[in-house]
Design brief:
mainly alpha; two-stranded antiparallel ribbon; 43% helix
């Protein structure tokens, strides 16, 4: 893992990664420490925004989420047609996935 000064590390539970795509996480954390420094309040605020966004996606029954896309792939691999999902009592391959959501952000800063 190549970590450099200015990088933001995202440590989180699957409640974040099942409901939010990596590019969305990057977009929500982009700009932290633009001037080479970041304050604790900005990091905490960004982490809270990620939690709130993931929670909203988890509650959204029609959102396209990483979890829903994975479920679609599993059904396709097993030959289960989307129109059969409800009849079989399977989880629909759309919407979010309710789960615990924990996010910790770290900002890599060079020290002298």
């Amino acid at each position: 893992l190549d970590i450099q000064s200015g990088d933001v590390l995202v440590l989180a539970s699957d409640g974040l990664f099942d409901n939010v795509f990596d590019d969305e996480i990057a977009s929500l954390t982009e700009g932290l420490g633009k001037n080479g420094r970041v304050n604790e309040q900005a990091i905490n605020s960004a982490a809270q925004q990620l939690v709130e966004y993931a929670r909203a996606r988890a509650e959204d029954e029609v959102a396209e989420t990483p979890w829903a896309l994975s479920l679609k792939e599993i059904y396709e691999e097993r030959g289960i047609k989307l129109k059969e999902v409800k009849r079989r009592g399977l989880m629909p391959p759309h919407g979010g996935k309710m789960d615990d959501i924990t996010v910790v952000l770290g900002y890599i800063q060079e020290t002298v």
